[in-house]
Amino acid sequence: MEKYSFKLSKALKVMYLSLACLTLSVSCQKLDESPENFVTPESYYQTKEQIETVFASSMNNLWNVWSNYSYTAEKLLKNDDQLYGGDLNITADWGSGLWAAHFKSVYGLNNAIAVLNVGISGVSADDINQLMGQAKFLRAYNYFMLVRMWGGLPIVTETTADPLAGNLARSSVQEVYDFIISDFKVAIDKLPVSWPADKQGRPTQDAAKALLAKVYLTMAGYPLNNAAYYQNAVDYSKQVIDAGNYHLVPDIADVFSTATKYAPENMWGFNSNEADKSTTWQQWSNYYGWGVNSVEPTFATTYPDQPRKYDYLELTFEGKTYTELGVNPGIGKFVYDRKEGLVDGLVNIPIIRYADVLLIYAEAKNRVNNGPEATAVAAVNQVINRANGNVANAGDPVATTALSMAAFESKVLQERSWELCFEFDRWFDIIRKRILPDVTLPVYKQNFSENDYLFPIPLQDMRLNKSFTQNPGY
After folding, report:
1. What is the pLDDT of residue 375?
2. Domains, the chain, ranges and CATH?
3. pTM for the full predicted model
4. Which residue in 137, 216, 356, 392 has the fewest CB atoms around it within 10 Å?
């Protein structure tokens, strides 16, 4: 299968970096001269394949063996209640690597969008539309991650000639979300329902609808707190459900196998193959002596006894339990095809999958209906039944319409924590529901502040852009 985020050749990387500033804090050098051979996006990107290198690079910025969401995303994860080490000590420049990586991707995507707006000789209108759909999808995803971590942001588009010279101010959270929605809607209009077998891993129309549903669910919570957006979340998640193009993998043990890395459940995510592997989190657990990413023991002990627990968590090693070994539990989700002794593998880390869509629909429908009704109950129970191996389980019972609105929402949120653990999701649920002091371990509650719901704007960007205001508390 083609990898959407394949590594760029050295020559392409040089060309790519000549066309975009890497982050908001790294400016392109200004030249008084106007050299005849100066490369512009329009003069370089003259084929469909060259535009696709930008998409590849945008994902590679976020996902490669030794950085960001493949390896160093503990900056995000270690503030939740799942991964060990979440002490709420959020220091200056916390997460600045993710900030830089996302804006680096945005700059490159803006170049591609600018070229596509003009058109490329010899490339059909249908191909231009598909390329534009991918570009807008990826830009929307990058901004969705950024706004949830940092709040209001400078909105940099293909028409922003020099974002550094203008000292762009931070737009409001609402304005950023409006921008995200606009891009995702373009993506929905232009992306295909599916890709050929040799192009799996690229975003589809359903993936755009699913992420847009998640955007609306987030907007219904903190910081916008606009309950009207629950209906939008219902509408877009229901479109995905009704389309029938995706469904849950029947056996929980197969959810993260390489055989199901692109379908029928995993809708879009970070892709890995032999040419560009991922850092396998499980390999870096205490069992192997590294201890970089291990599970918070409280999360493991409160996780219900069900098949899902023993597939998503690694609780034994060489015949001994983690307590017998005196270490923390490990992450078992992403173990497939790991070669012994290596720290990389072929697993995909999903960004959006069908289980998430079902849970988005259940939560939003419950709010719109002022209580659970049959379709919301059926959606969450699909996830619960698979987790239990389709056997009744008092530790994780199915939902019913007899639950109150609050009780049903609490159950769905708990299912999100168990089902989507270690998929860069829990922290954002904690933020939008504003439950950080409720889920923080008692020993670390003294570190809690209302300011913890946002990360600090990186110090270098604060120094270089005088229009920036820092988030409270930093």
Report:
1. 98
2. 10-191 (1.25.40.390)
3. 0.91
4. 392
